[in-house]
Task: structure prediction
Amino acid sequence: MPEIAFAGRSNVGKSSLLNLLTNRKKLARVSGSPGKTRTINFYIVNDAFRIVDLPGYGYAKVSKSTTENWGDMMETYFKNRDGLRKVVQLVDIRHKPSAQDVQMYEYLRHYGLDGIVVATKADKVSRNEMQKNIALIRKTLQLSKEDRVIAVSALKKTGYEELLCEIEKILEEEDAVYH
Ligand code: GDP
Result:
């Protein structure tokens, strides 16, 4: 089954987004204490594809050895997933992407899994700021014109249809290749 994975810093709003995408209220745990989810979770959507919830990275209080384990886990995951089609990178719309975000995106580019960035918590900025911040995200992650940045608010439930459209496109492209 094809897989679409989601990556981002702890507390970026990944669980909230995945709850929205999978239409289930309490599927992924929305954390009050960031940095605790250290396993990879899978959710099957409409019998059509799997959503892969990669553990959040970059929480300041995570120890070095935990960070190394995270890297090992990612490495193992990426190398053994035939079904993996894309990794959606999440960044908080309010902040300039961190060095780890940049590193993560470079990693995805290296594996050919890049192309979709979700700017989370879009309700927290004005329309004006939104454009400005998306430009900063584009610049910091060195996105190309083809790369998509989709502003999503899990709170206000906006932007996620656009993301689902992008995911559908990816799944269709695959159908065209394999059938
Ligand atoms: P995760 O650690 O990446 O899984 O992040 P969570 O989904 O647990 O969210 C972290 C915090 O951000 C929680 O306090 C959420 O309520 C909050 N949050 C998540 N998404 C949104 C959003 O779209 N808008 C706002 N305002 N807050 C959000």
Q: What stands out?
A: The chain has a mean pLDDT of 86. Residues 8, 10-16, 30-31, 34, 56, 120-121, 123-124, 153-155 surround guanosine-5'-diphosphate (CB under 6 Å). Residues 37 and 55 are 6 Å apart (CA to CA). Helices lie at 14-22, 64-79, 99-110, 127-140, 160-178.
